[in-house]
Structure formats: structure tokens, C-alpha cells
Amino acid sequence: MNTQQIHELENLIDKEIDGYKNIEKLYTDKKEILIKGKATDLYDLDAKIINTYKTINDLSEARKSVTKALDIPTFSITDIINKIKNTDEKAAKKLAEKKAEVNELAKRIYKLEKINIELTKHGMLFTGKTIEAMLKGVTAVNKEYNAKGQNIANDQLKMSSIIEEA
User: What residue spans define the domains of the chain?
Assistant: First the structure.
């Protein structure tokens, strides 16, 4: 096993972990924005989340290349650990710790994502109810006028104001 490539894998996984930590922070920020109802701030935050996921994906692709070079069937951390544990026990142990950290981060991110989805649904429901209430108010006012804009509740002569003044 090439020690340099194993070290490169460790560095790539460390960078992925940093990316996941950043995602966790961004999801926590998103939760706060959703709670406070600051929808205008969501666009920039979602763009940061997407860019961070792209970076993580790029790191994952780099990890694929290194694992191929090491003749490891997949790029999963488990397969990497299984392949190197006989030749570099210390590196295998480090990678096992990194795997545990990734798993914990994934669980926390998943929970935050679920909360954010529910908050988004709630916000959409609230917005829908608000619009519905506003439309009911407008509809009630519209019922007082006919298609020509004349007040139908008014029993006065049906002539325009121009004729009355003349």
C-alpha cells in the first residue's frame, strides 16, 4: 500500500468532514431564518449550501480516483479501512474514527434537514392561509359592486356622476 496515497485519502476525508460541518452550520442558520420568517435571506443561504455540497462531491470524486489507484473496489470509507488495515493499522484506526465522525454528522444534518422541511411546510401553510384570508376580504368588498363598478347596495338612481352634475 502506498503511504502517500493513504495520507491523501485521509486529507480528502478530513476536507469532506469540514464540508459536512459547514453544512451542519448552514442548516442550523437556515432553521433560525425559517423560524424568524426571514424568507429573503434563504436564497443566499441555499446558494451556500449548494456550493458546499458541490465541493463535497468534488472531494468525493477525488477520493474515487485515489481508491482506484489503490485497487480498492469502492470509495467507501469502510472498504478503504478493510483494504488497508492489514498493511497500515494506524491509518485504518484514524479512518475508522473519521468514519464515525462522518456518520454522526450525517445523523445531525439529517435531523436538521427534516426540521427545516417541516418549518418550510409550516411557512407555506401559514402563507397560504394569510393569502386566503386576504382574498376573502377582497371578495367581500367586490360583492358590493357590479361588473361596471357601481355600488349594488345603493338604491339610488343608476346614472353616472357626470349626468348628475350636468
Answer: 3-118
